[in-house]
Structures are given as structure tokens and as C-alpha cells.
Q: What sequence folds into this?
């Protein structure tokens, strides 16, 4: 009797141990994968290490814009009702630095009267190509920009 | 459908294997586990990786430095790939010396060698993806090697390279092959290979002394339990290697800044040494001919008898090939 019960309990102990370790192992894998999938700030921002901090989100009021530098290129960050947009401030005609007109919602070039709409498309004047787009995003209450191709 | 499954399980319940299996007989099954590890970590890496010349390096850096446990996933993927190629080589060596490539298993030898080629191609295409200096110049030196192979070289470069210069076009192709083509081919071949093994059984070790009573053990649980333990052990080694020696990430690839010395991955070291020893076209052709000879092993050895000298020749060829491979590897490392 005692031998039998000892054997039975050993068997159940071992199978519990086996099931337990399998469960722990699986839980470890699931936890690791979950930790991996939950993105850290840098990855979540989708802006990457080469991003430029423009300023706090509430610094640029609705309809206004702020000029900032991304790798020595002037970039307009404009606050629209649909969110922030970032466009190169270099006119695609001769490379003058354009100005944002919040009233008319247009970018205007002081050199040859080129005009671009709030998406960077040419509205009037000599420029042929739209303004170069930049990536813009909000992370923890601040606005960041980066080049589109440095979008990691 | 559930009933069909039950029926299948019931039919296979009586399956037994020889009691004289060694650890080497588990190499093939362990590769299945390693392949699942590669598939899982590969999919996880795809979540953060971006295949473009501008973003590939940064996304790899993000995986390595920013994503939680990203370095571990990347390291496991890299070490798992090495483990797969190592296990495949060991598995192939065992099958060769057991002469298990003879009918009815000849087709499975060919399928197996094809899978090894696929694994090497997966390793090769995967090496470029981090887009760092090592990846770029390693693949670039390989391009010159492939170009040196007569006839085939240009064909391969045209089909799989898409151009002569190493740039984003090549990166995209390698990515497409690495995640979209090669794994699925490997997956299919693994299915065929496993099914054939299941149908034909493995060639079991011959009794060492003639009148030996054949002892058999059940497939489940005995074989499965041993497999489980071996997989845990191998997994432990793999995990430790991945934790202790995570792969490096060099500077971003710069086409204007060639690296003087890029050591190939260990499994291609002998090929590089051969290239150095012989003039380009000859060495590259020798590698192609060698690969074809390996494919043709079942055709070349159709001997059914038991004449000792002939079997010694078969063994000697195997030992010589391994010795040559090992010597070239050593020469490559201690150059």
C-alpha cells in the first residue's frame, strides 16, 4: 500500500513538474514576445534617432507655423486642423526660403511670387515641383520632424 | 475532421524505432525545431525591419538598441541560422556514412541537399539585410565571386541580383527572396522530406554482431521524450550563445568606403580559401562541380554488395572531403 501510494504520488509529482515547467516555459516565451511587440518610444515615434525636436505641442497654435532646421534644411512645421504638417521651406524654383501665410493658408516665396498650398502643392508662379515633405509626429507632448527616408 | 485526426493517431500508435539509435539520429528532427525558431524570430524581426537602403540600417539599430528584447530576437535569429546549417551538415554527414542515401531513400537525399542549398541561400540573403558595412562588403565580394563562375555566374547575377551595383534594388530582391520565396520553398521541401521519412522510416543502424535480437522501442513516448530532452539541451546552448555573443552591427553601409577584410560566414570560409588558392573561374567552377557531385551521391554509389574494400573507398571519400573542408576552414581563420 505504502509503496503503491508512493509510486502514484511520484508519478503525479513528475507529471505536474513536467506540465508546470512546460507552462512556465510557454509563459516566458509569450511574455518575451509581448514585451517585444509593445513598442518603446523611439520605435513608436516612427521618427528615429535623426529626428529634430521642434518644441512642445502647444507652442505652435492652430493655423500658425514654425521654421526649424533639419540637417541644415529649413522646414516649416504648420499646425492645421488635421494635425501638423512639415514641408521644406526651400522653394522648388530657385531655392529661396518661403514664408507661411496663416490667413491665406499658403506658402509664399518672396523671390518670384511662387505659391504653394498647405500640402506643398504648387498653386501659382514659376515653381514646377511641390515642396519636399518631411515626416512629423507628436511624442510625449512634443513635435518632432525628420526626413521621410529616415523614418525609422 | 477530428475523427480523421484521431484515426491517424491511432494508426501510428504502434510505431516503433530501433533501440540502437544514437544522438546523431535525432539531428534531422532537431532541425524542425530550429526551423520553427527561425520562422518565429523572423516574423518578429519583420515587424520592425524596413527594407530600404535609407531605413534598413536604422531599423536594425532600432531592433538592436531600442525594442525590448529586440537584440535577443535578432541574436536568436542569427544563431538559429548558424545552428540550422550546422545541424544540416552533421545530418548529411551521418546519412552519408550510414549510406542511407541508397534506394528507396535516394530522392530524400536529393531533397535534403536542395534544402541545404536553400539554407545557405537564406543565410546569404539574410546577411545583407542589416545593411551595415560588413553586410555590404561581404555581399559585394561575393558578387565578384559569383561573376567569376563561367556561364552560370552572369545568369545568377541577372536573375537574383537585378543589377551589377549593390544598392537598394539588390536589398529589395534579397528581402523578397529571404522572406517571400526561400522560406516557403524550404517549408515545402521540409514537408516532403518529413513525409518521406515518416513513410519509409529511417535506415536503422545495422546490428553490430550478427545474431543480435532486434530490440525496438515505441516512437511515443520513448523517441519523443529523448527528442524533447535533446531539443531542450540544444535550445539551451543556442539561447546561451545568443545571450552571450549577440551579433554586432557595424556602421551603416557606405558604398564609397570599402572594407579591406571581410571574413565570410564560417560555412563559406572554405569556399573563399579555395578561391584564393585557385584562379577565379577554376575555383568557382570547382565549387559548382562539388555541389553537383554531392547531389549525385545516390547515383554514384549504387553498390548493393558487402565487399569491404569498396565500402572503405566510400568512407575514405567522405573522410577526405570532411578533412579538406576542415583544413580550408582552419586556413581561413588563421590566415
A:
Amino acid at each position: 500500500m505504502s509503496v503503491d501510494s508512493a509510486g502514484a504520488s511520484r508519478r503525479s509529482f513528475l507529471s505536474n513538474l513536467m506540465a508546470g515547467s512546460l507552462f512556465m516555459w510557454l509563459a516566458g516565451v509569450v511574455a518575451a514576445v509581448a514585451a517585444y511587440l509593445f513598442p518603446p518610444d523611439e520605435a513608436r515615434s516612427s521618427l528615429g534617432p535623426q529626428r529634430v525636436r521642434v518644441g512642445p505641442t502647444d507652442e505652435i497654435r492652430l493655423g500658425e507655423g514654425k521654421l526649424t532646421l533639419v540637417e541644415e534644411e529649413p522646414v516649416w512645421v504648420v499646425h492645421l486642423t488635421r494635425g501638423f504638417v512639415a514641408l521644406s521651406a526651400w522653394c522648388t524654383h530657385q531655392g529661396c526660403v518661403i514664408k507661411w501665410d496663416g490667413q491665406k493658408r499658403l506658402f509664399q516665396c518672396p523671390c518670384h511670387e511662387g505659391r504653394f498650398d498647405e500640402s506643398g502643392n504648387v498653386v501659382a508662379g514659376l515653381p514646377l515641383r511641390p515642396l519636399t515633405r518631411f515626416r512629423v509626429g507628436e511624442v510625449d507632448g512634443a513635435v518632432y520632424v525628420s526626413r521621410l527616408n529616415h523614418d525609422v | 475532421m477530428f475523427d480523421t485526426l484521431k484515426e491517424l493517431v491511432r494508426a501510428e500508435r504502434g510505431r516503433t524505432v530501433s533501440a540502437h539509435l544514437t544522438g546523431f539520429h535525432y539531428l534531422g528532427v532537431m532541425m524542425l525545431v530550429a526551423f520553427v525558431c527561425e520562422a518565429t524570430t523572423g516574423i518578429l524581426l519583420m515587424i520592425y525591419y524596413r527594407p530600404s537602403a535609407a531605413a534598413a540600417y536604422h531599423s536594425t539599430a532600432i531592433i538592436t538598441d531600442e525594442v525590448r528584447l529586440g537584440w535577443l530576437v535578432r541574436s536568436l535569429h542569427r544563431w538559429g541560422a548558424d545552428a540550422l546549417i550546422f545541424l544540416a551538415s552533421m545530418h548529411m554527414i551521418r546519412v552519408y556514412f550510414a549510406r542511407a542515401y541508397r534506394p528507396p531513400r535516394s530522392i530524400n537525399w536529393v531533397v535534403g541537399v536542395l534544402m541545404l542549398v536553400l539554407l545557405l541561400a537564406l543565410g546569404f540573403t539574410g546577411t545583407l539585410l542589416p545593411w551595415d558595412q560588413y553586410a555590404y562588403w561581404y555581399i559585394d565580394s561575393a558578387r565578384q565571386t559569383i561573376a567569376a563562375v563561367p556561364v552560370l555566374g552572369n545568369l545568377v547575377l541577372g536573375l537574383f541580383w537585378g543589377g551589377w551595383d549593390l544598392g537598394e534594388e539588390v536589398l529589395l530582391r534579397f528581402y523578397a527572396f529571404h522572406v517571400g520565396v526561400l522560406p516557403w520553398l524550404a517549408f515545402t521541401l521540409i514537408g516532403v522530406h518529413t513525409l518521406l521519412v515518416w513513410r519509409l522510416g529511417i535506415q536503422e543502424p545495422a546490428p553490430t554482431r550478427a545474431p543480435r535480437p532486434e530490440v525496438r522501442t515505441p516512437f511515443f513516448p520513448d523517441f519523443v521524450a529523448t527528442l524533447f530532452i535533446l531539443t531542450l539541451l540544444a535550445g539551451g546552448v543556442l539561447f546561451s550563445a545568443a545571450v552571450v555573443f549577440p551579433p554586432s552591427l557595424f556602421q551603416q553601409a557606405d558604398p564609397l568606403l570599402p572594407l579591406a577584410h571581410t571574413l565570410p560566414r564560417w560555412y563559406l570560409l572554405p569556399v573563399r580559401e579555395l578561391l584564393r588558392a585557385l584562379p577565379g573561374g577554376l575555383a568557382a567552377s570547382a565549387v559548382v562541380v562539388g555541389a553537383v557531385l554531392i547531389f549525385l551521391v545516390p547515383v554514384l554509389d549504387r553498390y548493393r554488395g558487402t565487399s569491404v574494400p569498396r565500402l572503405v573507398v566510400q568512407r575514405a571519400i567522405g573522410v577526405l572531403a570532411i578533412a579538406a573542408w576542415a583544413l580550408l576552414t582552419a586556413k581561413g581563420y588563421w590566415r
Q: What stands out?
A: The CA atoms of residues 22 and 38 of chain A lie 24 Å apart. Helices of chain A lie at 2-37, 41-45.
